[in-house]
From TrEMBL:
SUPFAM superfamilies: Isocitrate/Isopropylmalate dehydrogenase-like. This is 3-isopropylmalate dehydrogenase. Pfam families: Iso_dh (PF00180). It catalyses: (2R,3S)-3-isopropylmalate + NAD(+) = 4-methyl-2-oxopentanoate + CO2 + NADH.
Length: 392
């Protein structure tokens, strides 16, 4: 496997007083581990998990990385090796590329790459998944919605990540009274699980436009009835936030009919999984959207939401901007480096203003580039910002 420094990770070197350590030489036995960012008084360890498919293309390779997902199944026989989880837990933040692919679709559940994703979320204790979906002015024509519907959309979905039907017990396979095979899962939430994600959502809404919509299915599901009760009871702690409730089927419809009515959405694990992907397509491409998964303490997990896209892996067609923007969320939510995060986001905006587009967001009159070139163009902008800062 050939390893070389990818320019994308250099977007983390944002301050004139902060520089990334140079990439360590690649070795045949240890191609993968963590990036160290240095500041005058602070060091950061950022573990990189490129994963599968286009993951290695959109995640930069610096000092060291760890294997996860299908790549780890092939190398170690498990989707999340203990060494990988230990490195992630010892980091200040974790940047994940993508996992999964056709190759592992027929594996038993415990050997599926997606199992590793659930395991690392649980292992890091990250329970709040923040998924922004904003339609950038430069890309409004890439949305499949009418311009007047898509223009100005700016939504944050706050998804509960470690509870609900993906983790609830009992679960498994059985037989019914007719002798037929059955499969069953349990949707269960405790009051404390609902309360902690709700407080995160209220705080996020407070930093945005002060509106929070809680999405549930309280007309049918007992777990949602408790969800709505707890969310409503916590509203008194945030009198400055306008709280509303919506059933998930209506929310799915409203995201297409009138997405601008939403500011911040909070919902459970499975509804958030679905609605955040739906919201992502308002922007024109899932390749533009980052995410952050955070907990009460310990490192956060930051990743693009586009998946591994194995059909285009290795072809230099992937859009790296979601990963770059995930690095910006890492800086903001994982390391508390707000100014650095803004500089990354500004570099992405300027690169789009300069007309560079990967295939998923291309339109006539713009410049079609591949994954590597797009990363290089963003890096040029970041470096020009650094030069201005040094000379000012």
């Amino acid at each position: 496997m050939s390893i070389q420094a990818n320019p994308l990770i250099k977007t983390l070197a944002l301050s004139p007083r902060r520089r990334m350590a140079p990439p360590a030489p690649a070795t045949a036995r240890r191609p993968m581990a963590a990036v160290r960012c240095s500041a005058a008084k602070r060091n950061y360890n950022v573990t990189l998990l490129p994963g599968d498919g286009i993951g290695p293309e959109v995640v930069a390779v610096a000092k060291d990385e760890k294997l996860m997902g299908g790549a780890a199944v092939d190398a170690y026989g498990v989707p999340l090796p203990e060494e990988t989880l230990a490195a992630a837990q010892a980091s200040d933040a974790v940047l994940l590329g993508a996992i999964g692919g056709y190759k592992w679709d027929n594996n038993e559940k415990h050997l599926k790459p997606e199992t590793g994703l659930l395991q690392i979320r649980a292992g890091l204790g990250v329970f709040a998944n923040l998924r922004p979906a904003a339609v950038l002015p430069q890309l409004v024509d890439a949305s499949t919605l009418k311009k007047e519907v898509a223009e100005g959309v700016d939504i944050m979905v706050v998804r509960e990540l470690t509870g609900g039907i993906y983790f609830g017990q009992p679960r498994g396979f059985g037989k019914n009274d007719k002798g037929e095979d059955t499969g069953f899962n349990t949707e269960v939430y405790s009051a404390s699980e609902i309360d902690r994600i709700t407080r995160v959502a209220f705080e996020v809404a407070r930093k945005r436009r002060g509106k929070l919509c809680s999405v549930d299915k309280a007309n049918v599901l007992e777990a949602s009835m408790l969800w709505r009760k707890r969310v409503t009871s916590l509203a008194s702690e945030f009198p400055d936030i306008e709280l509303s409730h919506m059933y998930v089927d209506n929310a799915a419809m409203q995201l297409i009919r009138n997405p601008k009515q939403f500011d911040t959405i909070v919902t459970n694990n499975i509804f958030g999984d679905i609605l955040s992907d739906e919201a992502s397509m308002l922007t024109g491409s899932i390749g533009m959207l980052p995410s952050a998964s955070v907990g009460e303490s310990g490192p956060g997990l930051f990743e693009p939401i586009h998946g591994s896209a194995p059909d285009i892996a290795g072809q230099d067609k992937a859009n790296p901007l979601a990963t770059i923007l995930s690095a910006a969320m890492l800086l903001r939510y994982g390391l508390g480096e707000e100014n650095a995060a803004k500089r990354v986001e500004a570099a992405v905006t300027e690169t789009l203003n300069n007309g560079f587009r990967t295939g998923d967001i291309y339109s006539p009159g713009t410049t079609l580039v591949g994954c590597k070139r797009m990363g290089e163009e963003v890096l040029k902008t970041v470096e020009s910002q650094s030069a201005v800062a040094l000379n000012s």
